[in-house]
Amino acid sequence: MVANKQQYPTLFTPLDLGFTQLKNRVLMGSMHTGLEEEKNGFEKLAAFYEARAKGGVGLIVTGGISPNFRGRLAPFGSELSKPWHVAKHRQVTNAVHKHDSKICLQILHAGRYSYHPFSLAPSAIKAPITPFTPKAMSERQITNTISHYGRCAKLAQKAGYDGVEIMGSEGYLINQFLCPRTNKRSDKWGGDFSGRSRLALAIVNRVREQVGNDFIIIFRLSMLDLVEDGHTLDEVIELGQLLEKAGVTIINTGIGWHEARVPTIVTSVPRGAFAWITERVKQSLSVPVVAVNRINTPEIAEHILSTGQADMVSMARPLLADPDLVIKAQRQQPEKINTCIACNQACLDHVFSNKRASCLVNPLACYETELVMRPATTPKRLAVVGAGPAGLAFACFAAERGHDVTIFDKSQVIGGQFNYAKQIPGKEEFFETLRYFDERLNDAGVKRVLGQEQSAESLAEAGFDEIILATGVSPRQVDIEGIDQPHVLSYLDVLRDHKPVGQRVALIGAGGIGFDVAEYLTTEEQLTLDESAWSERWGIDKSYETRGGLKKQQPERSSREVWLLQRKESKVGKGLGKTSGWVHRTELKSKNVHMWNGVSYKKVTADGLLIERDGEEQLIKVDTIVICAGQVPLRALQSSLEQQGRPVHLIGGADVAAELDAKRAIRQGAELAARI
């Protein structure tokens, strides 16, 4: 019998580094989880990385660890600088090495991005993302820092790491030295490119001197800064060549500074959008080069590798979403991968709020030792009413534990509110989550009853042991005079029923739903999958004629005029995601969407919406008014079932209807499934 031809041949070709070999071309990119600073966090971190190693990743890079106190990201951030730090790191390396994977420690000095008053930088220039102004480093502090990098790498080697990654991008210390934007020094560490690149090369030389030849050194090179006064392309290539001579084993790509006003990883960024710059730099280098950002399927990874754009691909969030991504691809089962939707809600938004990272579509991520799905001791017959995110998560986990699960929904399709979210431009990845749950329901043996509304009587007749209500939400009604007129629609009328909407529209409610509907109504073309059009829109200079790779943005225009209104006095969009909200606000602003706060709604008229703002009444003349004012839980079955003495559990929107919170819904479904 002839074996099936490998679907991703380049992805699973080993990479020979001379003194060692990587089993495939997948690098798990660095990502801070928050476990690094928790009590017993390294024990949990070991389980987190072991799951990814067991899942087939060739090379893992840890979250950023500082080489000294002043370089910490936060006052209590992790550093590796003392011999007694080694033991906790050894828990991680031992766990990973059980599964024929390799792991590198990322050494990261935050420079002016440090969120504490002891920060140092090449020059005393405050970053826009922290409240602290750094002190300019003295010559002695620079030479000490170089030594600290070498010491950190040596300690990493003692802890069993296979190598280190030196973080030279994303606007951290080394990147700050490299670019005239933040390096205003007049000594040998500043001035021309030779001076500005001196620190990066000195660090690599010191690290190589400390660890010897048979140790991986990755350098994360900022290939596209996306800020004014960043690198030129010639400087990027020259530095890459100098790093090769200094003994770097692999060059990883860095895209954008944290303060850049160009999105680099959110859902609306096309898959593989930055592989073009890796390809361009790779042509001038001889060491392996890694492509990064929005590579979330084995198909896009294989394309990048097979066309010669890179030698490896970096996946960070995709391996939060599915620790078994690599092995599923190797088994030629890509349809079973829990695809990262790049929402940032449970990963980066958590990290930047000093919370532990996890994953919206995989709540077990970073909770491998706490949210554990053990086989059920007493299997039960369970009914799940509602096939939205909460119901799907519960049904799959409960069935996988050994329970007999039936899921019901009055719709003919699974997905609940995800079926509306996936229509929003920039949220097309939600299709992948529904595909994944569809596969997983089948694999877990969950029975489906779709297209039928359930009653307490129908559920009672079936004799279930317990009933889980994941019935979701309905749009909240608002009490405004004239609200029952025909030109007033709910967001479901627009997204589910596709009722016609006029050219002038007022949206009542500026939460996540209001922003989604505004995006839906003002997007003329689906540009999210077209990388060139998207780059043009955001002002990315692919000709690289300017420092930092920026040019004038060419935002998409809209033929509709839209008002996004809220009662609150706070900034419109304040409650959106910490790392993605600014992207949504920028896109709508570019389409001339009016975002008004402090609005009182007086009356709906035939001509539009009468409001009061800043003490003055005014009529917004619109053709259509769309209600996006939140939701209320759907719990009609609860009291009837409880009167019958049935054990009933509420999860998702049926429990709490505050905005559409898939992160909480999926986690709640998983937590109930773990204990039922």
TrEMBL record:
It is an enzyme of class 1 (oxidoreductase). It comes from the Bacteria. Its EC number is 1.3.1.34. Residues 381-645 form the FAD/NAD(P)-binding domain. GO terms for molecular function: 2,4-dienoyl-CoA reductase (NADPH) activity; FMN binding; iron-sulfur cluster binding; metal ion binding. One of its GO terms (biological process) is fatty acid beta-oxidation, unsaturated, even number, reductase/isomerase pathway. Its cofactor is [4Fe-4S] cluster; FMN. The keyword Membrane does not apply. Keywords: Flavoprotein, FMN, Iron, Iron-sulfur, Metal-binding, Oxidoreductase. Residues 11-334 form the NADH:flavin oxidoreductase/NADH oxidase N-terminal domain. PANTHER family: 2,4-DIENOYL-COA REDUCTASE, 2,4-DIENOYL-COA REDUCTASE [(2E)-ENOYL-COA-PRODUCING]. In the N-terminal section; belongs to the NADH:flavin oxidoreductase/NADH oxidase family. This is NADPH-dependent 2,4-dienoyl-CoA reductase. It comes from Idiomarina fontislapidosi. The gene is fadH.
